[in-house]
Write the structure tokens for this entry.
Amino acid sequence: MSDRFHKRLWRNAVSFSRSQEPHASIHAVEGLRECPTCGLFQHVPRLKPGHLAECLRCGCQLARRRKTSLIGAPAAFCITSAALYATLLISSLMTLNVYGRENTVSLMSGPIELGHQGYGAIGVLVALVTVLMPGVIIALMAAILYGASRPQMPDWTPRLLTWYDRLRGWSMVEVYVLGVLVAYTKLVDLALVILQPGVYLLGGLMLSMAAVDSTFDAERIWRSRDISPTLDDHQGNLLSVAHLDARNGVIPPVKNMLSCHACDLVLAFDHTVPQEQDMGDCPRCGQILRRRKPQSLISATCLLVAGVVFYLPANLLPVMTYTKVGQGAPSTIISGVIELWQAGMVPLSLLVLFASITVPVLKIVALTIMIIGTRFRSRWHLRNLSKLYRLVVIIGRWSMIDVFMISILVAVVHFGFLANVTADPGMVCFALVVILTIFAAELFDPRGMWDAAGLNDAVADPVADSSAEAEFPPASAAISPSSDSNDMEPERA
């Protein structure tokens, strides 16, 4: 069933005027996987527990089999996360004592205080990624595991699995933990700081949610989902879905194939697939099928330019002002790093420097190089740029450390004339830089770099000329044991 209401209306309307019998068969190709980073179609056999498959051209992880049980292990950690999360909502993180006056901060204190100071939008952002989204992620995982444990998987399970994949990166519990650590180091020199049980609950929640991700095997869930015998195309027609096993040596032309961005199912049509056109709904998960992300280059460029515009004021304007006994001065991001260094907290100052200064610059420079390279159809270091793109996607959200730290300080340090911390406009600009570059990285399609260079027109040929073969290996994924598997010898498909 399609997620798009307008398509269902169209299908129901045309059913009155003509038959909706399936026609124009397409094929669901088994044993083939498209690399999400470079777009190369490769053979991926069924993996043994503890093994993973990597793209031979760019090194991207294509698949990984967990050694743990499909439902039991992630369910246990999910229940643990739910218990910790529920307790954390009613617990305090820390208490600050200044000359006998005490203030206590909880998970919601920072967003509320930011709203009181006139920064409601940033308060909503902090509450969204630290309070609401972790609960949503835990609830989605619980529902997914319940649906996957049923003898017949409900239709809502694949949709929830798709949303889990989209929203997981916006749950920033681990980043908030570092924000609490930085705030604590700034407060210990100011007054007496008493850590409350919420800090330990927060650390436990970070570990349990990471354990859920490390034991959850999404591909095995997708494989247990039946493929619908029909597919709704972009015009409301029904197409019959046949099955084709690529391991038998029959591979359709690459220009006729695409893979679902949600469940990785490879589909082959009887004609060339346009790069960005809506090709219907996936017969396994119901998501929109497109060969590439629509308007990827233009969208990423616009968001990146907007991020660059806000980057300079984010570093030049003060992000917060700390006053003690009526005296104080505004503080910028770099001055905060210097203060940590001068206080002897060198590792922490380097962490803040990396997350708040280095990471935004790295994202901006890296995305700029990728966009320019795509526009000029360059083959310059495509493998390294693909690895850099994956790094940018992973580390992008860690720049929120400063925003979280400020939200904690403004919530706990408000003693009027004695001591007070207020947020400043630089924090807003910095938060915008982080969010805009995250969206720019998500909307940019790295496969476009390889498309523009003309390297995705066909399956890589092992008998090609020696120079091309050395740079771009044949289309067969590398299979090797994962880091937690030392008792199996590596093998190649």
